Amino acid sequence: MRARRRKIQLPYPNTHETIWEYKESFLSRQIDFFSFIGAACPVCGKQDCYREITPYWRYAIDLFPEFKKERVPVARFLCDKRERTFSILPSQLMPYFQYTVNAVIGTLLLVLHYRQMGQKGLHGASVAVDPDTLLTPWLIACWLGAVVLGFRRAHGVLRQWYNLADIRSSHGSAAWEEASGYFLCFGWHLQIRWGPPLQSFVNRYSRSTRLFLFGTPSQYRVTAHP
User: Fold this and answer.
1) Quick one: which of 223, 211, 168 has its CA closest to 13?
2) Is residue 196 assigned to a domain?
3) Least CB-packed of 56, 62, 151, 203 within 10 Å?
4) How far apart, in whole angstroms, are the C-alpha atoms of residue 164 and residue 66?
């Protein structure tokens, strides 16, 4: 019964540049989630089997261009046949991460910038942002692991769009070089306005695969059983 009622999270690619623009559109009822989902229920596959229910709210934290933390709404729906809920998570967010995709990638770019300057990247990045962010070297290292894992899982799709022939999987400190290789292929660095290209990139992947590029949604997370 527990598995039958397990929640599902689906990515919602959108044209909003930031999560805050998405929030405004959501609250002003400008988003047509039903057109995005389609007539078939994502849970059971039957036509017109789902309905919208009360959204839930979660915190989102962005760091670039400035620190901002607010609660944002997430659309939820219920499959009437299986009595199972699913939510539509905007592509600016990652499942089970409070920090936005923009914040995570921006911080990793900042670390790489400090590393290229011969400085301690993790420490430099953690003190370069607003102290209220509570950013730590440990958290940045966790983000690196999540991002590199996401790229590895998506590699087969991404190599259809980019030349990734020189990318090699690595471990430990070499993971920074792997991440740097991907960023270089995608054209992301601090000297450009990398936010919009990043958002377009994430949207493109989710539209093509119906999957999250980064993070693990509820339906794929391993749960402990007594």
Assistant:
1) 211
2) yes
3) 56
4) 32
